[in-house]
């Protein structure tokens, strides 16, 4: 008498497993519109084959989908890609949060509406390509946290308004391009107070470093070397007390270095070489006990080195070549 109910229960359990399997196999299946967009993008590249052939693009190399089948990540760095990049072919990837096509040989400009296409984007890394043109007119959204456009051929100015919605931006790297105009040092003052890294080095920026960096309360790295910057060292930078690195070599900055530099107690790297800094070094420079690398080569500093530098027990290199200092000093 118990055989029939048992069979019914077993049959029901098998149906449940089959239904669960069908659901689980479809829960990650990608949207056909997004699959078509990815194939359109791949067709513009002259590169090794991606072997994107299966029906479900969520299982393709470099693609990650969420549980609803939306493509959220496109990560294809160092794949040897060559050819033009057409962001418009990816505009249907409306849930994209991570885009990394770095270390390839892609060329093209970014369309003016680039960031409107990808308004959920959190991480953008297009570094080490051959991209060119000005920054898109449409500013990135509040979702963006990292922008890395370094080592390309971008040009033009970077207006502060570019950051007007980027309230959660933590890293902005545009080094090794040909950007011009002023360094947008008021970013934290008005838009992105959470920045930890700012890298403007190896461009053609000019003019003074305007106030504003002091409002970057989370800033750890500030680089703007190899430009045409001039004027005085911005006083308010000494308020950015979490700074661990300041690198401003090969500019035309001048004036004395304030004793307020002692506020930067986390500073480990200080490179102000190949500028026109003058006067004496602050006597309290030795309060920066975390200093490891200090370079003042080719400036107009004068006088003796402050004895307090002997307190910097972590110091690995200290360079003062071609100065008017009373003596040279090297600690290793």
From TrEMBL:
<feature type="domain" description="Leucine-rich repeat-containing N-terminal plant-type">
    <location>
        <begin position="33"/>
        <end position="66"/>
    </location>
</feature>
<dbReference type="GO" id="GO:0016020">
    <property type="term" value="C:membrane"/>
</dbReference>
<keyword id="KW-0675">Receptor</keyword>
<keyword id="KW-0677">Repeat</keyword>
<dbReference type="InterPro" id="IPR013210">
    <property type="entry name" value="LRR_N_plant-typ"/>
</dbReference>
<dbReference type="Pfam" id="PF08263">
    <property type="entry name" value="LRRNT_2"/>
</dbReference>
<dbReference type="InterPro" id="IPR032675">
    <property type="entry name" value="LRR_dom_sf"/>
</dbReference>
<keyword id="KW-0433">Leucine-rich repeat</keyword>
<protein>
    <submittedName>
        <fullName>Tyrosine-sulfated glycopeptide receptor 1-like</fullName>
    </submittedName>
</protein>
<keyword id="KW-0732">Signal</keyword>
<keyword id="KW-0325">Glycoprotein</keyword>
<dbReference type="InterPro" id="IPR052595">
    <property type="entry name" value="LRRC69/RLP"/>
</dbReference>
<dbReference type="Pfam" id="PF13855">
    <property type="entry name" value="LRR_8"/>
</dbReference>
<dbReference type="InterPro" id="IPR001611">
    <property type="entry name" value="Leu-rich_rpt"/>
</dbReference>
<dbReference type="Pfam" id="PF00560">
    <property type="entry name" value="LRR_1"/>
</dbReference>
<feature type="signal peptide">
    <location>
        <begin position="1"/>
        <end position="24"/>
    </location>
</feature>
<keyword id="KW-0472">Membrane</keyword>
